[in-house]
Specification:
The protein is mainly alpha-helical and about 900 residues long. It has five domains: about 80 residues, no CATH class; about 170 residues, Rossmann fold; about 120 residues, no CATH class; about 230 residues, no CATH class; about 210 residues, Serine Threonine Protein Phosphatase 5, Tetratricopeptide repeat. It contains 42 helices and ten strands. The chain has a five-stranded parallel β-sheet with strand order 3-4-5-2-6, sandwiched between helices. A three-stranded antiparallel β-sheet has the order 1-7-8. Strand 4, helix 14 and strand 5 form a beta-alpha-beta unit.
C-alpha cells in the first residue's frame, strides 16, 4: 500500500499509519485482462499490419466516472499490476495473457497541473521503450532529432530531459540511442565529417536515398511513409504522425524482443473542451497510428470518438472507425467472454463493504483501524459510495483529532463544499448553471433542465447528461438523475466557487422548475396518471422547500383525488408541522394515501391537524373536510360525518357532488332508504349516481337491479377514464353476482382484482375479498371460516365499518346455506354488536332474512319497497345455494 502523505502530514501521531487504500475493483481488472488478451491475439496474428491506416481500431478501452470515484488510483494500480506480480493486488490473481510478447506499461498523467503536452507524451513513450529495449529505433529517432533541432534550437535533448524530470524516471539512454541511429545512417550513406551539426544534411540525403530506393538504406526502405515525414515541416502537427514510425519500428523487432506498449492516459478530461479538441486530436492520432499498442484511458467523460458529429474536429470518427466505442458504455465490467461489443466502462460507486474496507485500512494504529466501526458506518451511509467523500471524511477525522476532539458520528452530518468544486471543475458556465438547476429535481429530462436553467437552447443540457455523475434510466418517467451525494451537496453545501448561487438564485430556479413541471403535466395529450403523480411529488417538494405559491398544484391535487387510485406520495414530514400552504397540501395528500394503510381514526386526526393550521386555501379546505367526513362515516361516526358532508354540500364547490353522495350513504346507513333513493336519482356522474343506486338496490336484495346499476357505473367510469371508480364498481358487481351466480362471479372477482392491481384502494379490496368468500359459501366450512377470520382481523385494523358489516353478512349467508343454527346465532350477535349505535341496522335485518329468522324487535329501517319483498328476495338467495 502506498503512503498517503497528505494524511501523514496532518498529525503528530507517529504511531499512526496512513495508507492510500485501494478497494478491490476486481471487475475492472477482469475487463482489462479480457480486452488485453484479445488485443495480443490480434497483434500477433500473421495478417496483422501496423501500416494499415484504414482498418477499424479496437486498441483502446476507457474507464470514466465522476471526480473522486477512484479513476487515477485504478490507473496507477493497473500500471503496477501490468509491470509485474509485485504491484498486483493479491485478490486480482494471475493474468490471463501469454508471457510473449512482453508488456510495457507507460502511465501518463494528462492533468493540467502536470503540464503535459503532446511532445512530452510522445517523449515519455519513447523513453520507456529506450529503457526497456536498450536499442535505437532509427526511423523514429532520426525524425525526432530533426524535429528537435527545429523546435528547440540551442537546447539539447539531454538538457530538456534532465530539466523536465523524465531522465530521472527513465534514465539517459535515449539521447545516446538517437545519436547512434544518426551515426549508423550517416555511415550507411557514407556522409563525410561529424554528424552532430548536420542533421538537415543527413535527413536530406536519407530522403533522397529512400526515394531512389538505394540498397544502402534497405533497413529503412520498408517504412513506406518515412520519406514523406522527413520532408514535412517539422512542427507539432508533423510530430503527431511520428507514432507511425514508432509502430513500424516495433513491428521490426525480433521475436525475442517483441514488446507491446500498454499506455495509460489518465485525467483525459484535461485534454481540452468539447469545442477545443486540439490536444485530443493529437492523442487520437497517436492511438490510431499505433495499432499494436494498447491504450487505457481514464477520465470523467466517455470517449466520443465514435460520434460522426465530431468529423472535422478529430481525424478519425464514427462507429466504423471505433466500433467498440460506439456501443453503450457498460455499467459493470464483464468477467468472461469478449469485450468487443463495448469498450467503455462507467466506474461505479463503492459498495458498503468496499467503503468500510477503505476507511478501515486508510488510517491504522497498532494494527487496528483508527476509525471505529460505528463511525465508519455513518460515513459509509452518507458517502453514497463516492470515494472522494470517504477521502474528505478521513481528512475531517484527522482535523478533529488535531483540534483535541474525539470524532463522533454527528461531526459527519455535513457536506463537503470541495465535492462541488471537484464536480464543476471541467464544466462550462452553462453546464454548471444547469447542474445546479437540475439538482432541484429527483429526476429530469432535457426540457425540464433547460427551462429550469432559464435557457433558450438545450445544447448545454445535452452535454451535461453525458457526464458520469448523471445517471440514465430509459424506462423512468424522466430519464436522468444526479448522483445522490452530488445532488445533496449542491443543494446544501456553502461552496466557494466563483459562480455559486445566492438564496434568491435558488428561489428563482425553483420557481422556474415548478412552472416547467406544471406545463409538462398540462401539456399531456390525455390523462396520464404516472405523469400526474410524478409532477405532484416533485412539485410539492419544490413548493415546500422554497415556500412557493401552489399554482397548478391545486388542480393537480384535485386530479389526484378524482381517480381514487391513491399512489403514495413519499414526502418527508415538515419538522415542526405544516408551516405553508405547500406543507399543508403535502400533508393532506399524504394522509389520503396513507389512510389505505392505517386506521381511519388516525386519518381523522391527521386531517383535523391539517385543517387546524389554516394554511389550506378554500377549495383545498373543502377537500380536507370532505375526506374527514368520509373517514368519520367509515368509522360509523354518522353525526360527525353528516356535519362535515352538509358543510361541503352547502358550499356548492368542487366536492359538493361527492358530499351529496356521502349524505345518500349516510341516509342509507340510518335506514332511510327513501331519502337515499331520492338523492341517488339526482347525483349523476359527478356524484357517482349509478353506484349509489346499486348500493340501495343491493340492500333490498334486488341483485338483478343492483348488477345493472353497477355495470352502468363501471361503463360510465370507463367512458370518463376513471380507473379508481371503475374498480369500485367492478368489485361491487362481483359482490352482487357472488350471491346469485358463483360461477360467473369467479371471473368477475378476478377482473376486479385485475383492475385493483396498481391501485391502492383498501376498502374496495375488502369488497372483492368478501365477494370471493361469498362465492364459496356453503363449501368446506373450515376453509371459509379460516379466511373470514383472517379478513376480519385486517378489516378491524383498518376501522372500515362497512367492510366489517359486509363480511359478517357473508358469514351468516355461509352458515345459513349450511343451516348451522349455532353459527348463525353467533353471526347475528356480531352484526347486532356492530349496529348497536343504530347505524347500518338494516344489515342485522338482512341477516335475519337470510337465515329465515324473525326479527327480535320492531325495526327502524324505512325500506324503499315492501319489507316482505326484501325478506323474500334475501331468503331466496339461500335455497338455491343449498
Amino acid at each position: 500500500m502506498a503512503r498517503d502523505l497528505r494524511a501523514l502530514f496532518s498529525t503528530n501521531d507517529r504511531q499512526m499509519e496512513a495508507g492510500e487504500a485501494f478497494t478491490d475493483r476486481h471487475g475492472q481488472w477482469q475487463f482489462v485482462q479480457t480486452a488485453l488478451a484479445e488485443h495480443l491475439a490480434r497483434v500477433t496474428a500473421p495478417n496483422f499490419d501496423v501500416e494499415d491506416l484504414e482498418a477499424p481500431r479496437t486498441n483502446v478501452i476507457a474507464f470514466y466516472g465522476v471526480g473522486g470515484i477512484g479513476k487515477s488510483t485504478l490507473s496507477r494500480t493497473l500500471e503496477a499490476a501490468l509491470a509485474g506480480a509485485d504491484g498486483r493486488p493479491a485478490r486480482w490473481g494471475e493474468p490471463s495473457w501469454p508471457a510473449r510478447p512482453a508488456l510495457l506499461p507507460v502511465r501518463i498523467d494528462l492533468a493540467r497541473s502536470a503540464g503535459t503536452d503532446f511532445e512530452r507524451v510522445l517523449l515519455t513513450i519513447r523513453l520507456a521503450l529506450a529503457a526497456h529495449l536498450g536499442r535505437p529505433l532509427p526511423a523514429f529517432d532520426i525524425a525526432l532529432r530533426r524535429y528537435w533541432e527545429h523546435q528547440h534550437p540551442g537546447e539539447s535533448l539531454e538538457e530538456y530531459l534532465a530539466r523536465g524530470g523524465l531522465a530521472g524516471r527513465f534514465g539517459k539512454a535515449l539521447p545516446q540511442q538517437v545519436q547512434a541511429a544518426l551515426g549508423d545512417v550517416a555511415q550507411a550513406l557514407m556522409l563525410p565529417g561529424s554528424i552532430g551539426g548536420a542533421v538537415g544534411q543527413l535527413t536530406g540525403a536519407l530522403t533522397q536515398a529512400l526515394r531512389e530506393r538505394r540498397q544502402t538504406v534497405r533497413a529503412l526502405a520498408g517504412c513506406a511513409r518515412l520519406a514523406d515525414l522527413l520532408e514535412a515541416e517539422p512542427d507539432v502537427d508533423a510530430l503527431s504522425y511520428y507514432p507511425h514510425l514508432l509502430a513500424w519500428e516495433l513491428a521490426q523487432l525480433p521475436a525475442d524482443k517483441q514488446v507491446v506498449p500498454v499506455i495509460l492516459l489518465d485525467t483525459f478530461e484535461d485534454t481540452g473542451t468539447r469545442t477545443h479538441r486540439d490536444l485530443e486530436r493529437l492523442l487520437q492520432r497517436l492511438v490510431w497510428l499505433m495499432p499494436g499498442a494498447f491504450f487505457i484511458v481514464t477520465g470523467r467523460s466517455r470517449l466520443q470518438w465514435a460520434d460522426p458529429a465530431l468529423e472535422g474536429q478529430l481525424d478519425f470518427t464514427g462507429p466504423a472507425a471505433w466500433p467498440g466505442l460506439a456501443e453503450q458504455a457498460v455499467p459493470a465490467p464483464r468477467t468472461a467472454g469478449t469485450t468487443t461489443g463495448g469498450r467503455q466502462v462507467l466506474i461505479g460507486d463503492f459498495s458498503a463493504d468496499d467503503c468500510d474496507d477503505y476507511l478501515a485500512r486508510r488510517l491504522v494504529k497498532d494494527g487496528q483501524p483508527l476509525i471505529g466501526p460505528e463511525l465508519r458506518a455513518v460515513i459509509t451511509a452518507r458517502s453514497h459510495g463516492l470515494p472522494l467523500y470517504l477521502d474528505l471524511s478521513v481528512m475531517r477525522f484527522l482535523e478533529l483529532r488535531r483540534a483535541g476532539r474525539t470524532p463522533a458520528p454527528e461531526d459527519f452530518d455535513a457536506d463537503f463544499p470541495a465535492l462541488i468544486t471537484r464536480t464543476v471543475a471541467d464544466l462550462t458556465p452553462d453546464e454548471r448553471h444547469i447542474l445546479r438547476s437540475v439538482s432541484l429535481f429527483d429526476a429530469f429530462d432535457l426540457e425540464l433542465a433547460t427551462r429550469t436553467a432559464g435557457l433558450t437552447h438545450q445544447a448545454a443540457a445535452a452535454r451535461l447528461i453525458e457526464r458520469p455523475f448523471v445517471r440514465h434510466d430509459p424506462f423512468a418517467l424522466w430519464s436522468y438523475n444526479l448522483h445522490a451525494l452530488i445532488r445533496s451537496t449542491l443543494r446544501t453545501a456553502d461552496d466557494a466557487t466563483d459562480d455559486r448561487w445566492t438564496d434568491a438564485d435558488w428561489t428563482a430556479a425553483a420557481t422556474r422548475a415548478l412552472a416547467a413541471l406544471g406545463e409538462q403535466w398540462r401539456a399531456a395529450a390525455g390523462p396520464d396518471r404516472r405523469l400526474l403523480v410524478g409532477c405532484l411529488r416533485q412539485g410539492l417538494a419544490l413548493a415546500r422547500d422554497h415556500r412557493l405559491d401552489l399554482g397548478w398544484l391545486t388542480d393537480a391535487a384535485h386530479a389526484y383525488t378524482d381517480d381514487y387510485v391513491w399512489e403514495p406520495l413519499p414526502l418527508p414530514d415538515a419538522a415542526d408541522g405544516p408551516a405553508t400552504a405547500a406543507d399543508a397540501l403535502a400533508e393532506l395528500l399524504a394522509t389520503l394515501a396513507r389512510r389505505q394503510h392505517e386506521h381511519r381514526s388516525r386519518t381523522v386526526e391527521r386531517l383535523t391537524a391539517v385543517l387546524d393550521t389554516g394554511h389550506l386555501p378554500a377549495e383545498l379546505t373543502e377537500m380536507a373536510l370532505y375526506f374527514r367526513a368520509k373517514a368519520h362515516r367509515d368509522l360509523g361516526e354518522s353525526v360527525a360525518s353528516r356535519d362535515g358532508m352538509q358543510q361541503v354540500a352547502a358550499s356548492g364547490g368542487r366536492y359538493a357532488p361527492d358530499a351529496a353522495r356521502g349524505l345518500a350513504h349516510l341516509a342509507r346507513a340510518a335506514g332511510d332508504f327513501p331519502t337515499a333513493l331520492t338523492t341517488a336519482q339526482s347525483l349523476g356522474w359527478p356524484g357517482r349516481g349509478h353506484r349509489v343506486l346499486g348500493d340501495i338496490t343491493f340492500a333490498h336484495g334486488d341483485m338483478t337491479g343492483a348488477a345493472a346499476a353497477y355495470t352502468a357505473a363501471r361503463t360510465e367510469a370507463e367512458e370518463h377514464g376513471n380507473a379508481g371508480e371503475r374498480a369500485i364498481a367492478q368489485a361491487h358487481l362481483a359482490l352482487t353476482l357472488a350471491y346469485t351466480d358463483p360461477v360467473r362471479a369467479e371471473s368477475e372477482v378476478a377482473y376486479a382484482e385485475q383492475l385493483l392491481a396498481g391501485l391502492d384502494q383498501r376498502a374496495t379490496m375488502f369488497t372483492a375479498q368478501v365477494a370471493d368468500l361469498i362465492r364459496h359459501a356453503g363449501c368446506d366450512g373450515r376453509d371459509v371460516i379460516s379466511r373470514a377470520d383472517s379478513l376480519r382481523a385486517e378489516i378491524g385494523a383498518s376501522g372500515i365499518t362497512a367492510a366489517a358489516l359486509l363480511l359478517e353478512l357473508a358469514v351468516v349467508f355461509h352458515h345459513a346455506v349450511l343451516d348451522d343454527e349455532a353459527e348463525i346465532r353467533e353471526g347475528l350477535a356480531r352484526l347486532t354488536e356492530l349496529t348497536r349505535t343504530g347505524d347500518y341496522a338494516y344489515y342485522r335485518d338482512i341477516a335475519h332474512h337470510l337465515a329465515g329468522r324473525t326479527l327480535p324487535a320492531a325495526t327502524a329501517v324505512q325500506w324503499a319497497s315492501e319489507e316482505a319483498t326484501v325478506r323474500a328476495r334475501w331468503l331466496a338467495l339461500v335455497t338455491p345455494r343449498r
